[in-house]
Amino acid sequence: MNQIKHVAIIMDGNGRWGIKQGKTRNFGHEKGIKTVEMIIKETIKKKIKFLTLFAFSTENWKRPQGERNFLFKLLEFYIKDKLDSLNKEKIKIKIIGQKIFTNKLNSLLNYAEYKTRKNKKLQINIALNYGSKNELLHAFNKLKNKKKKITIRDIKKNLFTKNTPDPELLIRTGNTKRLSNFLLWQIAYSEIFFEKKLWPDFTAHDYNKILSKFRKTKRNFGNI
Ligand code: FPP
Question: In the CATH hierarchy, which fold is given to the domain comprising 6-215?
Fold first, then answer.
């Protein structure tokens, strides 16, 4: 049976879900938070130590300002509302991506990271203004003046995910088969599960089915 230390998720389909309900895309994002809460609960239950959630990509800046602002407000409300309980649950919050939001949101994110820094039960990496190509560029620029040859270890140590093992599995909901510039280095050997359901419809049962399937998957890592 394969062990799971780290699950990464592309939470796709909120917008379509909102429209399907005859409401707005933002209504879908709001509902998406409920699925986030369920996933956190299930991940703790399964004693998985790392969870990375793709909340806002470097490409998502192209969305209308109204939707962007709504997403940032949602995140702000979520953190303000849940930080104490996340901390009590011994959850560590880490933001991956560059924090270039309003001073208010940047400070709140820094505070959430600081307050939960010693927690060890589950680390949640929230990918915000995150893009894999940006992350790699950032790492290469940090290493460019190194005298010796750059090693794999050097690159790993300079990614936003340093100190996080690579995800054994990546889940993408929303019936789309692409990686959208997410953790391209880290998922070199991850098992990828594309799920048809839209994120707000994704249930604990669906999640657990994927985890069980992953546990039974034969992983070769280039061997036979
Ligand atoms: C993708 O659906 C979803 C997002 C870009 C945002 C995800 C954000 C949340 C679920 C809320 C905040 C997260 C945390 C961690 C508290 P989409 O809008 O691309 O959907 P579509 O493919 O139907 O357009």
Answer: Undecaprenyl pyrophosphate synthetase (3.40.1180)
